[in-house]
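Hypothesis: this fold can be encoded by more than one sequence.
Test: take the structure tokens below, design a sequence, compare later.
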């Protein structure tokens, strides 16, 4: 481990260390990479005659007068007058009486601060200043850091200078060939320039260097796994290519696959037939038919002698998959089982024994599939649903249970391509950009007034009278389950009042799984007209007759969550409607609701969400390190992301998957250690 990963208390005294620790700075590396949040550019010196009110300015002026005066509240005040020949500037300092003696009359000073007008004259209060000594002033760009009241900017700058200029040089962590190819500033020079820039031009070069560096560390960390997978892609297995079960399954469907579905299936068939290990992300909007794609490929592998696994992030979604797949698999003479944390005792032991002996063709489950005791006879194809809920290492853990470790991960959260390339750098990316035929668009309306509410309930009443069904989603409350339950009960009361004579049921996270399952089945069978629910319905439930989605306090949801919820309707051929109830005055919330009204394109929504929020909040990317990028704009810097990714792949191929730079290897470890420990 290099010196810069050592703790600061080995380098700085305890008093200094305490002040830095409060900022989360514990190591030399933390301090060096505690980059300025802004810069105080003092290179543009202004004439006093050019000054404007509330302007932050740098003035080069001669000191004419200095005197002390008390304030009305009895505080000590030092006043001074300075001139640059174009006008006069009054300067005021509070609580610094010693300045009267230390300031030198008729000497030239640099004053930096915000200009105000007082008594008809320009004034600076408590400006920073330094003696110019009559020399021509060289422009200065000072760093401004996020700090606290016990650690001043000057002191923080001093500590950084101490570390930067009094310690040994850091080893380069970007491969030499990449530095030369793209003319990248060296690490030590870049660190010096980002903290204490010699010019605006070189500062931009330093920022460019750290943009490449932060991406390189993340991509190299992710792509190491990809390289290891690709190393296994020699044709060491052979599939007979039987597709009888696939044909039977497809012929039983009441619709044809879309062109997008056929394209993805063909791509994966090609990989399998060539003996390549499948390592692919399939992303598509809500209702784009990802599960159909997964089913075709699972059936193909099962018929050719292997077991399949499907992992979902929640028990509800796992049960939904199981119920949706079970009858089809049974018709084809195959055995499918469900494994969740709630399945225990004899039933669990029997299931695990059958799995190990190869008597189970497809196992569907939650995180329970990752447990050590879960062993397959010959696992050949893995499907992971709602990929953004799982980490890289969780995928790896499941793959290690397989013989071939073919992996298909799916997400209904549309992700901008730039972000997909980064988060899923170890995966090939396929996009289902086509909805099945016959799907009606969902009309979305933001409800903000009492009048609109009445109209909405009248409309819903009409739809229910025609035999349709509706969802009502209770507002998102994070404080406690008790409050959440209270919230959903209030919604139920309101719905009962506004829509009497209709069968209403509740669905929330505190219910037992058997209760949830029973309610969902009754709703699907039209025994229930209105389902009042929490966000447990965000994924998994498919009820074509449900055409109304009403979301209360919609401002509490992110765009992607609103889009997911809206996607629960519009599953049949009938026109569907989504009502977003919100009286928000918050501008960001208003923007979200307007976007939801304007488009149903999940990829446009994802991009807009990325503009409004942090990537980590939306896609759960903290494990990949992408949530704390400082120099890269994930939405717009697509070229840079792809360039760095390609260079990382080339480097790993050239070096057989090894990282030859110890400093780069250490930085990758530091970046990913939290997710390693978590998993």
């Amino acid at each position: 481990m290099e010196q810069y990963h050592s703790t600061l208390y080995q380098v700085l005294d305890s008093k200094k260390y305490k002040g830095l620790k409060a900022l989360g700075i514990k190591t030399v590396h933390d301090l060096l990479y505690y980059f300025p949040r802004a810069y105080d550019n003092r290179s543009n010196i202004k004439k006093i005659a050019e000054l404007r009110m509330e302007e932050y300015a740098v003035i080069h002026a001669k000191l004419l007068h200095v005197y002390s005066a008390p304030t009305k509240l009895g505080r000590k005040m030092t006043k001074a007058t300075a001139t640059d020949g174009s006008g006069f500037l009054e300067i005021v300092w509070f609580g610094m009486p010693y300045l009267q003696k230390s300031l030198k009359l008729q000497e030239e000073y640099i004053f930096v601060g915000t200009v105000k007008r007082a008594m008809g004259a320009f004034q600076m209060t408590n400006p920073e200043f330094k003696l110019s000594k009559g020399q021509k002033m060289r422009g200065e760009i000072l760093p401004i850091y996020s700090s606290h009241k016990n650690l001043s900017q000057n002191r923080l700058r001093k500590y950084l200078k101490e570390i930067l200029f009094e310690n040994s040089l850091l080893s380069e962590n970007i491969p030499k060939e990449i530095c030369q190819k793209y003319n990248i500033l060296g690490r030590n020079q870049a660190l010096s320039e980002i903290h204490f820039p010699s010019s605006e031009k070189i500062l931009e070069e330093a920022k460019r260097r750290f943009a490449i560096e932060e991406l390189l560390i993340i991509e190299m960390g992710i792509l190491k796994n990809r390289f290891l997978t690709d190393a296994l892609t020699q044709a060491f297995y052979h599939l007979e290519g039987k597709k009888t079960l696939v044909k039977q399954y497809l012929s039983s469907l009441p619709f044809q696959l879309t062109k997008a579905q056929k394209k993805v299936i063909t791509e994966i068939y090609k990989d399998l037939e060539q003996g390549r290990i499948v390592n692919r992300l399939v992303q598509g909007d809500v209702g784009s038919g990802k599960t159909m794609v997964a089913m075709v490929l699972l059936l193909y592998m099962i018929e050719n002698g292997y077991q399949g696994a499907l992992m979902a992030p929640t028990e509800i979604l796992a049960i939904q998959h199981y119920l949706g797949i079970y009858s089809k698999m049974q018709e084809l003479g195959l055995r499918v089982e469900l494994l969740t944390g709630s399945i225990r005792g004899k039933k669990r032991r029997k299931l695990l024994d059958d799995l190990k002996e190869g008597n189970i063709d497809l196992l569907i489950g939650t995180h329970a599939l990752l447990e050590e005791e879960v062993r397959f006879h010959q696992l050949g194809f893995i499907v992971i649903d709602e990929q953004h809920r799982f980490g890289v290492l969780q995928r790896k853990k499941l793959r290690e249970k397989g013989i071939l470790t073919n992996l298909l991960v799916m997400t209904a959260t549309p992700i901008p391509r730039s972000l997909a390339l980064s988060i899923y750098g170890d995966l090939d990316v396929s996009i289902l950009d086509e909805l099945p035929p016959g799907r009606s668009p969902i009309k979305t309306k933001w409800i903000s007034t009492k009048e609109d509410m009445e109209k909405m309930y009248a409309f819903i009443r009409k739809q229910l009278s025609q035999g349709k069904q509706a969802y009502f989603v209770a507002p998102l409350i994070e404080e406690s389950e008790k409050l959440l339950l209270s919230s959903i009960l209030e919604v139920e009361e309101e719905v009962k009042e506004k829509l009497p004579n209709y069968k209403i049921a509740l669905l929330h996270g505190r219910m037992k799984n058997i209760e949830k399952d029973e309610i969902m089945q009754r709703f699907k069978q039209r025994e229930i007209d209105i389902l009042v629910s929490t966000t447990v319905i965000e994924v998994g439930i498919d009820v074509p007759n449900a055409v109304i989605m009403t979301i209360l306090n919609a401002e509490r949801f992110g765009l992607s969550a609103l889009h997911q919820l809206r996607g629960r309707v519009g599953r049949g051929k009938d026109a569907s409607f989504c009502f977003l109830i919100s009286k928000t005055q918050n501008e960001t919330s208003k923007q979200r609701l307007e976007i939801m009204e304007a488009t149903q394109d999940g990829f446009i929504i994802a991009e807009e969400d990325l503009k409004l929020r942090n990537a980590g909040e939306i896609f759960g990317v903290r494990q990949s390190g992408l949530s704390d990028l400082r120099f890269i704009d994930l939405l717009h810097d697509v070229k840079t992301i792809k360039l760095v990714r390609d260079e990382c792949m080339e480097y790993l191929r050239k070096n057989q998957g090894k990282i030859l730079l110890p400093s780069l290897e250490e930085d990758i470890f530091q970046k990913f250690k939290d997710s390693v420990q978590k998993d």
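The radius of gyration is 32 Å. The chain has a mean pLDDT of 83.
Hypothesis status: open.
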